[in-house]
């Protein structure tokens, strides 16, 4: 039996790649899906695929960096589909490659703005209704540089680390009302974003490791993250709210280990135990 019947899911960046697969998986489990992105033709195609499988979805062209546009989109979602049960922030930008002094400041900041500010806007828009209903799950996608240095991807890495911390803060302020936030790292997926890294001169110069990883066979299928997020939406991993889950995780093994992860305070942005004692 489909586990998400009579629920509403919102997927940003849902016009292609990982986002499209997430939207499809949510719909296959019975959710009514709102698909958001800036490019109307792409999200309309995602909606058409969902409808072709018998699902219900709407396409809402939205710039997540525009607060007013985000709030307007969520009002439409509430009217046309109902209150949101699951929000998946999949939108992302990574166009500033190289050391800080080589990056165009506007391009660097635009990556941060789309990734981090966009996530803030959608979380802010959806939280009040979730809190009023006493239920809801928010999934924020993170990635390279979240928990480690990424010297030639500093804008992207900084934004993803910030999203991880935002996820923790949000979860800590909403979980008492049964609203949970999660971070998900989909892994290295061949997408429009990575293709640009592979083909651009700046990408070839500063991110040669991406091509090497693909040459070595590291190419995570987007369905891995989509199936994980489907399970999150169904409540399977509620114990791990506020923490980082990965597309490469074995979901059965993760379920068995999740209480140990919480006991060890793992999968979170933390100083070491020794450093914590000094603070």
UniProtKB/TrEMBL annotation:
Coiled coil: none annotated. Gene3D superfamilies: NAD(P)-binding Rossmann-like Domain. The keyword Protein transport does not apply. The keyword Oxidoreductase applies. It holds the Pfam family adh_short. GO terms for molecular function: oxidoreductase activity. It comes from the Bacteria. Keywords: Oxidoreductase. Belongs to the short-chain dehydrogenases/reductases (SDR) family. This is SDR family NAD(P)-dependent oxidoreductase.
């Amino acid at each position: 039996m489909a586990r998400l019947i009579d629920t509403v899911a919102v997927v940003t960046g849902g016009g292609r790649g990982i986002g499209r697969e997430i939207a499809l998986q949510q719909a296959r489990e019975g959710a009514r899906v709102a698909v958001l992105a800036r490019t109307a033709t792409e999200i309309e195609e995602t909606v058409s695929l969902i409808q072709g499988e018998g699902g219900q979805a709407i396409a809402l062209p939205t710039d997540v960096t525009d607060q007013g546009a985000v709030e307007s989109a969520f009002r439409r979602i509430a009217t046309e589909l109902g209150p949101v049960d699951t929000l998946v922030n999949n939108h992302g930008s990574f166009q500033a490659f190289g050391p800080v002094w080589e990056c165009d400041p506007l391009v660097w900041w635009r990556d941060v703005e789309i990734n981090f500010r966009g996530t803030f806007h959608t979380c802010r828009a959806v939280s009040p209704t979730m809190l009023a209903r006493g239920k809801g799950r928010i999934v924020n996608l993170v990635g390279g540089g979240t928990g480690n240095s990424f010297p030639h991807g500093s804008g992207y890495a900084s934004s993803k680390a910030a999203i991880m911390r935002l996820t923790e803060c949000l979860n800590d302020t909403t979980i008492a009302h049964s609203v949970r936030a999660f971070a998900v790292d989909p892994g290295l997926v061949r997408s429009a974003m990575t293709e640009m890294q592979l083909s651009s001169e700046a990408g070839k110069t500063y991110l040669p490791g991406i091509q090497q990883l693909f040459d070595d066979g590291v190419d995570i299928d987007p369905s891995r993250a989509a199936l994980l997020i489907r399970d999150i939406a169904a409540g399977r991993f509620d114990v791990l709210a506020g923490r980082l889950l990965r597309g490469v995780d074995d979901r059965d093994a993760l379920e068995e280990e999740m209480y140990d992860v919480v006991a060890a305070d793992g999968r979170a942005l933390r100083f070491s135990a020794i450093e914590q004692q000094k603070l």
